[in-house]
Protein backbone atom coordinates (compact mmCIF):
# COMPACT_ATOMS: atom_id res chain seq x y z
CA UNK A 1 0.00 0.00 0.00
CA UNK A 2 1.37 3.40 -0.95
CA UNK A 3 1.56 5.62 2.12
CA UNK A 4 1.55 9.35 2.63
CA UNK A 5 4.59 11.11 4.07
CA UNK A 6 3.09 11.63 7.53
CA UNK A 7 2.36 7.91 7.84
CA UNK A 8 5.91 7.08 6.71
CA UNK A 9 7.27 9.46 9.38
CA UNK A 10 5.66 7.29 12.02
CA UNK A 11 5.51 3.81 10.52
CA UNK A 12 8.36 3.74 7.97
CA UNK A 13 11.53 1.68 8.23
CA UNK A 14 10.67 -0.68 11.07
CA UNK A 15 8.02 -3.35 10.51
CA UNK A 16 8.05 -5.75 13.46
CA UNK A 17 7.07 -9.33 12.87
CA UNK A 18 4.96 -11.39 15.28
CA UNK A 19 6.12 -10.81 18.85
CA UNK A 20 8.90 -8.35 17.99
CA UNK A 21 9.32 -4.96 19.67
CA UNK A 22 6.76 -2.42 18.46
CA UNK A 23 9.29 0.40 18.84
CA UNK A 24 12.54 0.27 16.88
CA UNK A 25 15.08 -1.47 19.16
CA UNK A 26 18.60 -0.14 19.69
CA UNK A 27 21.04 -2.79 18.45
CA UNK A 28 23.94 -1.42 20.46
CA UNK A 29 26.34 -4.05 19.16
CA UNK A 30 29.42 -3.75 16.98
CA UNK A 31 29.28 -7.35 15.85
CA UNK A 32 26.88 -10.05 14.69
CA UNK A 33 27.26 -13.78 15.10
CA UNK A 34 27.15 -16.42 12.33
CA UNK A 35 27.17 -20.20 12.53
CA UNK A 36 29.49 -20.89 9.63
CA UNK A 37 32.56 -19.21 8.25
CA UNK A 38 31.11 -19.64 4.77
CA UNK A 39 28.10 -17.47 5.61
CA UNK A 40 30.43 -14.75 6.91
CA UNK A 41 32.53 -14.97 3.72
CA UNK A 42 29.43 -14.41 1.58
CA UNK A 43 28.64 -11.28 3.54
CA UNK A 44 32.15 -9.96 2.97
CA UNK A 45 31.85 -10.66 -0.76
CA UNK A 46 28.55 -8.72 -0.84
CA UNK A 47 26.88 -11.92 -2.08
CA UNK A 48 24.54 -12.21 0.90
CA UNK A 49 22.74 -9.44 2.76
CA UNK A 50 23.21 -9.25 6.49
CA UNK A 51 25.02 -7.53 9.29
CA UNK A 52 28.55 -8.23 10.36
CA UNK A 53 30.06 -5.00 11.63
CA UNK A 54 28.33 -1.78 12.66
CA UNK A 55 30.73 0.46 10.72
CA UNK A 56 29.15 -1.00 7.56
CA UNK A 57 25.59 -1.73 8.63
CA UNK A 58 23.49 -1.97 11.77
CA UNK A 59 19.82 -2.96 12.07
CA UNK A 60 18.77 0.18 14.00
CA UNK A 61 20.58 2.50 11.63
CA UNK A 62 19.30 0.61 8.58
CA UNK A 63 15.67 0.93 9.69
CA UNK A 64 16.03 4.69 10.04
CA UNK A 65 17.81 4.90 6.69
CA UNK A 66 14.90 2.99 5.12
CA UNK A 67 12.45 5.52 6.58
CA UNK A 68 14.40 8.50 5.23
CA UNK A 69 14.76 6.74 1.89
CA UNK A 70 10.97 6.30 1.71
CA UNK A 71 10.42 9.95 2.67
CA UNK A 72 12.71 11.18 -0.12
CA UNK A 73 11.59 8.57 -2.66
CA UNK A 74 15.01 7.06 -3.35
CA UNK A 75 16.33 3.56 -4.07
CA UNK A 76 18.69 3.56 -1.11
CA UNK A 77 19.91 5.66 1.80
CA UNK A 78 23.03 5.64 3.95
CA UNK A 79 23.23 7.37 7.31
CA UNK A 80 26.46 9.05 8.35
CA UNK A 81 27.84 10.38 11.62
CA UNK A 82 27.26 14.01 10.58
CA UNK A 83 25.92 16.18 7.79
CA UNK A 84 29.51 17.08 6.93
CA UNK A 85 30.31 13.39 6.40
CA UNK A 86 27.20 13.04 4.22
CA UNK A 87 28.26 15.83 1.87
CA UNK A 88 31.88 14.62 1.87
CA UNK A 89 30.84 11.08 0.91
CA UNK A 90 28.23 12.21 -1.61
CA UNK A 91 30.89 14.16 -3.51
CA UNK A 92 33.89 11.87 -3.03
CA UNK A 93 31.93 8.81 -4.18
CA UNK A 94 32.24 10.16 -7.72
CA UNK A 95 35.22 12.51 -7.48
CA UNK A 96 38.89 11.73 -7.26
CA UNK A 97 42.17 13.58 -7.56
CA UNK A 98 42.10 15.78 -10.66
CA UNK A 99 38.33 16.27 -10.82
CA UNK A 100 36.20 19.33 -10.24
CA UNK A 101 32.94 20.21 -8.46
CA UNK A 102 30.63 23.07 -9.43
CA UNK A 103 28.83 24.28 -6.29
CA UNK A 104 26.35 27.00 -5.52
CA UNK A 105 28.01 29.73 -3.48
CA UNK A 106 24.90 30.00 -1.34
CA UNK A 107 25.53 27.03 0.92
CA UNK A 108 26.21 26.22 4.55
CA UNK A 109 29.57 27.54 5.81
CA UNK A 110 30.85 24.07 6.68
CA UNK A 111 30.17 22.79 3.17
CA UNK A 112 31.74 25.94 1.71
CA UNK A 113 34.95 25.17 3.65
CA UNK A 114 34.84 21.47 2.77
CA UNK A 115 34.54 22.13 -0.96
CA UNK A 116 36.58 25.33 -1.13
CA UNK A 117 39.46 24.56 1.24
CA UNK A 118 39.78 20.92 2.27
CA UNK A 119 38.90 19.05 -0.92
CA UNK A 120 41.33 21.13 -3.06
CA UNK A 121 44.09 19.87 -0.75
CA UNK A 122 43.01 16.36 -1.73
CA UNK A 123 43.15 17.26 -5.40
CA UNK A 124 39.46 17.97 -6.03
CA UNK A 125 38.85 21.53 -7.15
CA UNK A 126 35.68 23.52 -6.73
CA UNK A 127 34.19 26.54 -8.46
CA UNK A 128 31.36 28.37 -6.72
CA UNK A 129 28.59 29.78 -8.90
CA UNK A 130 25.84 32.29 -8.34
CA UNK A 131 22.60 30.24 -8.40
CA UNK A 132 20.65 33.37 -9.35
CA UNK A 133 22.72 33.79 -12.54
CA UNK A 134 21.34 32.65 -15.92
CA UNK A 135 22.07 29.02 -16.84
CA UNK A 136 24.29 30.05 -19.78
CA UNK A 137 26.64 31.78 -17.36
CA UNK A 138 26.80 28.84 -14.99
CA UNK A 139 27.29 26.48 -17.93
CA UNK A 140 30.54 28.27 -18.84
CA UNK A 141 32.00 27.11 -15.52
CA UNK A 142 31.58 23.41 -16.39
CA UNK A 143 34.94 21.83 -17.28
CA UNK A 144 35.83 18.49 -18.87
CA UNK A 145 36.82 17.24 -15.39
CA UNK A 146 33.63 18.43 -13.64
CA UNK A 147 31.84 15.52 -11.94
CA UNK A 148 28.79 17.05 -10.25
CA UNK A 149 26.76 20.17 -9.53
CA UNK A 150 25.94 20.87 -5.89
CA UNK A 151 23.33 23.13 -4.25
CA UNK A 152 21.07 23.56 -1.20
CA UNK A 153 17.26 23.56 -1.52
CA UNK A 154 17.06 26.42 1.02
CA UNK A 155 20.46 27.87 1.81
CA UNK A 156 21.73 28.08 5.36
CA UNK A 157 21.69 30.83 6.57
CA UNK A 158 20.52 33.11 3.75
CA UNK A 159 17.24 31.33 3.02
CA UNK A 160 17.76 31.48 -0.74
CA UNK A 161 15.82 28.91 -2.78
CA UNK A 162 17.72 26.80 -5.32
CA UNK A 163 16.08 26.25 -8.71
CA UNK A 164 16.45 22.45 -8.61
CA UNK A 165 14.74 21.68 -11.91
CA UNK A 166 16.81 24.24 -13.84
CA UNK A 167 20.13 22.99 -12.44
CA UNK A 168 19.16 19.33 -12.90
CA UNK A 169 18.54 20.08 -16.56
CA UNK A 170 21.88 21.86 -16.86
CA UNK A 171 23.76 19.05 -15.08
CA UNK A 172 22.13 16.31 -17.16
CA UNK A 173 22.88 18.13 -20.42
CA UNK A 174 26.55 17.65 -19.51
CA UNK A 175 26.26 14.07 -18.25
CA UNK A 176 26.58 15.15 -14.63
CA UNK A 177 24.48 14.34 -11.55
CA UNK A 178 22.91 17.06 -9.39
CA UNK A 179 23.47 16.74 -5.63
CA UNK A 180 21.12 18.74 -3.41
CA UNK A 181 21.42 19.26 0.35
CA UNK A 182 17.78 19.22 1.47
CA UNK A 183 18.41 19.82 5.19
CA UNK A 184 16.29 22.95 5.69
CA UNK A 185 13.30 21.98 3.56
CA UNK A 186 13.13 18.33 4.67
CA UNK A 187 11.17 15.88 2.48
CA UNK A 188 7.98 17.18 4.15
CA UNK A 189 8.29 20.45 2.26
CA UNK A 190 10.34 19.46 -0.80
CA UNK A 191 11.37 16.20 -2.45
CA UNK A 192 14.26 17.15 -4.75
CA UNK A 193 14.20 13.81 -6.60
CA UNK A 194 10.78 14.73 -8.02
CA UNK A 195 12.44 17.77 -9.62
CA UNK A 196 15.26 15.81 -11.26
CA UNK A 197 17.86 15.84 -8.48
CA UNK A 198 19.99 12.67 -8.49
CA UNK A 199 21.48 12.56 -5.00
CA UNK A 200 19.96 14.14 -1.88
CA UNK A 201 21.91 14.83 1.29
CA UNK A 202 20.90 15.88 4.80
CA UNK A 203 22.27 17.05 8.06
CA UNK A 204 19.82 15.02 10.14
CA UNK A 205 21.10 17.08 13.09
CA UNK A 206 18.55 19.75 12.15
CA UNK A 207 14.78 19.33 11.62
CA UNK A 208 14.86 15.56 11.14
CA UNK A 209 16.12 15.10 14.68
CA UNK A 210 14.40 18.29 15.74
CA UNK A 211 15.35 18.13 19.41
CA UNK A 212 19.08 18.84 19.17
CA UNK A 213 20.08 15.48 20.58
CA UNK A 214 22.30 13.91 17.91
CA UNK A 215 24.63 14.93 15.09
CA UNK A 216 24.02 12.92 11.93
CA UNK A 217 23.71 12.90 8.16
CA UNK A 218 22.05 11.03 5.32
CA UNK A 219 22.65 10.40 1.62
CA UNK A 220 19.76 9.28 -0.60
CA UNK A 221 20.26 7.89 -4.09
CA UNK A 222 17.43 8.50 -6.58
CA UNK A 223 18.68 5.58 -8.67
CA UNK A 224 17.87 7.67 -11.74
CA UNK A 225 21.31 8.72 -12.93
CA UNK A 226 22.69 6.59 -15.75
CA UNK A 227 26.33 6.21 -14.70
CA UNK A 228 27.13 3.82 -17.53
CA UNK A 229 25.95 6.29 -20.18
CA UNK A 230 28.78 8.54 -18.94
CA UNK A 231 31.12 5.76 -17.89
CA UNK A 232 34.27 7.64 -18.82
CA UNK A 233 33.41 10.26 -16.18
CA UNK A 234 32.64 7.76 -13.43
CA UNK A 235 35.15 4.89 -13.68
CA UNK A 236 34.79 4.19 -9.94
CA UNK A 237 31.24 3.01 -10.62
CA UNK A 238 31.58 1.47 -14.06
CA UNK A 239 34.93 -0.37 -13.91
CA UNK A 240 36.00 -3.23 -11.61
CA UNK A 241 36.77 -2.42 -7.96
CA UNK A 242 39.90 -4.41 -7.19
CA UNK A 243 39.27 -4.05 -3.47
CA UNK A 244 36.09 -6.07 -4.02
CA UNK A 245 37.42 -8.94 -6.14
CA UNK A 246 36.84 -6.93 -9.29
CA UNK A 247 33.09 -6.44 -9.03
CA UNK A 248 31.66 -3.51 -10.97
CA UNK A 249 29.07 -1.48 -9.08
CA UNK A 250 26.85 -0.63 -12.04
CA UNK A 251 26.87 -4.25 -13.29
CA UNK A 252 26.32 -5.91 -9.91
CA UNK A 253 23.96 -3.41 -8.29
CA UNK A 254 22.20 -1.61 -11.16
CA UNK A 255 20.21 1.36 -9.89
CA UNK A 256 21.79 0.97 -6.46
CA UNK A 257 25.38 1.25 -7.76
CA UNK A 258 26.11 4.66 -6.26
CA UNK A 259 24.69 4.02 -2.80
CA UNK A 260 26.28 0.54 -2.57
CA UNK A 261 29.69 1.99 -3.35
CA UNK A 262 29.30 4.52 -0.55
CA UNK A 263 28.90 1.74 2.01
CA UNK A 264 31.25 -0.85 0.63
CA UNK A 265 34.07 1.56 -0.17
CA UNK A 266 33.82 4.92 1.62
CA UNK A 267 32.21 3.73 4.83
CA UNK A 268 34.53 0.74 4.92
CA UNK A 269 37.66 2.84 4.42
CA UNK A 270 36.78 6.17 6.04
CA UNK A 271 34.33 5.26 8.79
CA UNK A 272 31.81 7.95 9.80
CA UNK A 273 28.93 5.63 10.62
CA UNK A 274 26.41 6.82 13.21
CA UNK A 275 26.03 5.10 16.57
CA UNK A 276 22.88 2.94 16.90
CA UNK A 277 21.83 5.11 19.85
CA UNK A 278 21.96 8.22 17.67
CA UNK A 279 19.97 6.48 14.95
CA UNK A 280 17.32 5.67 17.55
CA UNK A 281 17.17 9.32 18.67
CA UNK A 282 16.92 10.44 15.06
CA UNK A 283 14.02 8.05 14.55
CA UNK A 284 12.18 9.54 17.53
CA UNK A 285 12.51 12.93 15.89
CA UNK A 286 11.35 11.67 12.51
CA UNK A 287 8.14 10.37 14.04
CA UNK A 288 6.92 13.96 14.49
CA UNK A 289 8.72 15.65 11.58
CA UNK A 290 5.50 16.30 9.66
CA UNK A 291 3.82 17.96 12.66
CA UNK A 292 6.83 19.99 13.65
CA UNK A 293 7.53 21.31 10.14
CA UNK A 294 3.99 22.60 9.88
CA UNK A 295 4.36 24.51 13.15
CA UNK A 296 7.91 25.74 12.38
CA UNK A 297 6.60 27.18 9.11
CA UNK A 298 3.48 28.82 10.52
CA UNK A 299 5.45 30.29 13.46
CA UNK A 300 8.23 31.55 11.19
CA UNK A 301 5.72 33.17 8.82
CA UNK A 302 4.20 35.06 11.77
CA UNK A 303 7.61 36.13 13.09
CA UNK A 304 8.86 37.16 9.62
CA UNK A 305 5.70 39.20 9.04
CA UNK A 306 6.14 40.94 12.40
CA UNK A 307 9.79 41.72 11.67
CA UNK A 308 8.97 43.02 8.22
CA UNK A 309 6.45 45.47 9.62
CA UNK A 310 8.67 46.72 12.46
CA UNK A 311 10.42 50.03 11.67
CA UNK A 312 13.51 49.01 13.68
CA UNK A 313 14.20 46.16 11.29
CA UNK A 314 16.22 47.00 8.16
CA UNK A 315 15.43 43.90 6.11
CA UNK A 316 13.95 40.39 6.37
CA UNK A 317 14.69 37.34 4.25
CA UNK A 318 12.22 34.50 4.43
CA UNK A 319 11.37 32.66 1.20
CA UNK A 320 7.69 32.21 2.08
CA UNK A 321 7.06 35.99 2.37
CA UNK A 322 5.42 37.31 -0.79
CA UNK A 323 7.93 40.20 -0.74
CA UNK A 324 10.89 37.79 -0.91
CA UNK A 325 12.95 37.69 -4.07
CA UNK A 326 12.69 33.90 -3.78
CA UNK A 327 8.91 33.78 -3.38
CA UNK A 328 8.27 32.53 -6.96
CA UNK A 329 10.76 29.68 -6.44
CA UNK A 330 9.34 28.99 -2.97
CA UNK A 331 5.84 28.72 -4.45
CA UNK A 332 7.09 26.21 -6.97
CA UNK A 333 9.31 24.05 -4.77
CA UNK A 334 7.91 24.73 -1.29
CA UNK A 335 4.16 25.31 -1.71
CA UNK A 336 3.30 24.06 1.80
CA UNK A 337 5.96 26.06 3.60
CA UNK A 338 9.73 26.43 3.58
CA UNK A 339 11.36 26.16 7.01
CA UNK A 340 11.61 27.90 10.37
CA UNK A 341 14.74 29.89 9.67
CA UNK A 342 14.32 33.63 9.19
CA UNK A 343 17.25 35.93 8.39
CA UNK A 344 17.09 39.64 9.12
CA UNK A 345 19.15 42.74 9.81
CA UNK A 346 18.55 45.55 12.28
CA UNK A 347 18.84 49.23 11.63
CA UNK A 348 21.84 50.41 13.62
CA UNK A 349 25.32 49.06 14.16
CA UNK A 350 26.75 45.58 14.39
CA UNK A 351 27.02 46.19 18.17
CA UNK A 352 23.27 46.87 18.29
CA UNK A 353 22.66 43.45 16.76
CA UNK A 354 24.78 41.81 19.44
CA UNK A 355 23.08 43.83 22.21
CA UNK A 356 19.68 42.79 20.83
CA UNK A 357 20.63 39.13 21.02
CA UNK A 358 22.05 39.47 24.52
CA UNK A 359 18.75 40.99 25.71
CA UNK A 360 16.57 38.12 24.57
CA UNK A 361 14.97 36.22 27.38
CA UNK A 362 14.15 32.64 26.32
CA UNK A 363 15.33 32.80 22.73
CA UNK A 364 18.84 31.43 23.22
CA UNK A 365 22.08 32.25 21.46
CA UNK A 366 23.07 28.83 20.17
CA UNK A 367 25.21 27.41 17.39
CA UNK A 368 22.31 25.47 16.10
CA UNK A 369 19.28 25.83 13.90
CA UNK A 370 16.20 23.89 13.17
CA UNK A 371 15.18 22.40 16.46
CA UNK A 372 12.11 22.76 18.65
CA UNK A 373 13.56 25.66 20.70
CA UNK A 374 13.84 29.09 19.16
CA UNK A 375 17.45 30.15 18.91
CA UNK A 376 19.47 32.93 17.34
CA UNK A 377 22.92 33.44 15.92
CA UNK A 378 24.99 36.13 14.25
CA UNK A 379 26.90 34.20 11.56
CA UNK A 380 29.53 36.93 11.06
CA UNK A 381 30.52 36.65 14.75
CA UNK A 382 29.81 32.95 15.21
CA UNK A 383 29.55 30.17 12.59
CA UNK A 384 31.14 32.09 9.72
CA UNK A 385 33.71 34.08 11.70
CA UNK A 386 36.61 32.64 9.72
CA UNK A 387 35.22 34.27 6.56
CA UNK A 388 36.03 37.84 5.48
CA UNK A 389 33.18 40.35 4.93
CA UNK A 390 33.79 39.88 1.20
CA UNK A 391 33.49 36.08 1.44
CA UNK A 392 30.38 36.49 3.58
CA UNK A 393 28.70 38.62 0.93
CA UNK A 394 29.81 36.12 -1.73
CA UNK A 395 28.07 33.36 0.23
CA UNK A 396 24.91 35.45 0.48
CA UNK A 397 25.50 36.22 4.18
CA UNK A 398 25.31 39.95 4.92
CA UNK A 399 27.67 40.97 7.77
CA UNK A 400 24.64 42.28 9.71
CA UNK A 401 22.61 39.10 9.11
CA UNK A 402 20.95 37.65 12.21
CA UNK A 403 19.77 34.08 11.81
CA UNK A 404 16.68 33.33 13.83
CA UNK A 405 15.63 29.71 13.99
CA UNK A 406 12.00 29.83 14.93
CA UNK A 407 10.97 26.94 17.15
CA UNK A 408 7.60 25.44 17.93
CA UNK A 409 6.78 27.43 21.07
CA UNK A 410 3.77 29.74 21.16
CA UNK A 411 4.27 32.30 18.35
CA UNK A 412 3.07 35.25 20.48
CA UNK A 413 5.69 34.47 23.11
CA UNK A 414 8.42 34.36 20.47
CA UNK A 415 7.33 37.72 19.06
CA UNK A 416 7.05 39.25 22.54
CA UNK A 417 10.59 38.21 23.41
CA UNK A 418 11.85 39.82 20.19
CA UNK A 419 9.80 42.96 20.93
CA UNK A 420 11.18 43.45 24.44
CA UNK A 421 14.79 42.92 23.29
CA UNK A 422 14.32 45.33 20.37
CA UNK A 423 12.92 47.98 22.69
CA UNK A 424 16.09 47.87 24.78
CA UNK A 425 18.34 48.45 21.79
CA UNK A 426 16.92 50.22 18.78
CA UNK A 427 14.54 53.19 18.87
C1 LIG B 1 24.32 21.85 9.60
C2 LIG B 1 24.37 21.66 8.17
C3 LIG B 1 25.32 20.81 7.57
C4 LIG B 1 26.38 20.09 8.39
O1 LIG B 1 25.77 19.16 9.20
P1 LIG B 1 26.38 18.61 10.59
O2 LIG B 1 25.38 17.61 10.98
O3 LIG B 1 26.50 19.78 11.50
O4 LIG B 1 27.73 18.03 10.27
C5 LIG B 1 25.28 20.62 6.20
N1 LIG B 1 24.37 21.27 5.45
C6 LIG B 1 23.46 22.11 5.99
C7 LIG B 1 22.47 22.79 5.10
C8 LIG B 1 23.42 22.33 7.35
O5 LIG B 1 22.51 23.16 7.87
Folded structure, characterized:
38% of the residues lie in helices and 13% in strands. It is an alpha/beta fold. The chain is globular, with a radius of gyration of 22 Å. The site of pyridoxal-5'-phosphate (PLP) has 17 residues, from helix 4 and helix 5. Pyridoxal-5'-phosphate (PLP) binds at residues 82-84, 87, 108, 110-111, 152, 156, 181, 183-184, 203, 205-206, 215, 217.
Low-confidence stretches: none
Distance between the termini: 58 Å
Task: Figure out the total of helices.
Answer: 17
Main sheet overview: 7 strands, mixed
Q: Strand order, main sheet: write it out.
A: 1-7-6-5-4-2-3
Helix content: 25-40%
Proportion of β residues? Answer: 5-15%
Give the integer mean of the pLDDT values.
95
Shape: globular
Bound molecules: pyridoxal-5'-phosphate
Radius of gyration: 22 Å
Structural class: alpha/beta
Series of H and E elements? HHHEHEHEHEHEHEEHHHHHEHEHEEHEH
Structure summary, number of beta strands: 12
Structural descriptors:
binds pyridoxal-5'-phosphate, five-stranded mixed β-sheet, seven-stranded mixed β-sheet, 17 helices, alpha/beta, 13% strand, 427 residues
Quick take:
By secondary structure, this protein is α/β, with parallel strands linked by helices. The protein contains 17 helices and 12 strands. The site of pyridoxal-5'-phosphate has 17 residues, from helix 4 and helix 5.
Layout: helices, strands, pairs:
Layout: H1 5-11, H2 37-44, H3 59-72, E1 76-80, H4 83-92, E2 100-104, H5 109-121, E3 125-129, H6 135-139, E4 146-152, H7 164-173, E5 178-181, H8 186-189, E6 199-203, E7 217-221, H9 235-238, H10 249-253, H11 257-270, H12 276-286, H13 289-309, E8 313-317, H14 327-333, E9 341-346, H15 350-358, E10 364-365, E11 375-377, H16 389-394, E12 402-405, H17 411-425
Parallel strand pairs: 2-3, 2-4, 4-5, 5-6, 10-11
Antiparallel strand pairs: 1-7, 6-7, 8-9, 9-12, 11-12
Helix pairs in contact: 1-3, 3-12, 15-17
The chain binds pyridoxal-5'-phosphate (PLP).
Amino acid sequence: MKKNLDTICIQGGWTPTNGEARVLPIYQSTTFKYDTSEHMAELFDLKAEGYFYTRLANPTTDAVAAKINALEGGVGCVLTSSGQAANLFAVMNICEKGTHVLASKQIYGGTFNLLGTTLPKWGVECTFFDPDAPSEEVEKLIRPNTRCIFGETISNPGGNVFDIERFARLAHAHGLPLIVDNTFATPINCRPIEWGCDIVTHSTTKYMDGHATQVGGAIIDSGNFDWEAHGDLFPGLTTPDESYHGLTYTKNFGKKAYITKIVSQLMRDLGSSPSPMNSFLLNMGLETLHLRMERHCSNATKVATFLQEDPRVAWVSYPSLPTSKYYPLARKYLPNGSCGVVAFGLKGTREDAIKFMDNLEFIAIATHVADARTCILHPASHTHRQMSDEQLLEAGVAPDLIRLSVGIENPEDIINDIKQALSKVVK
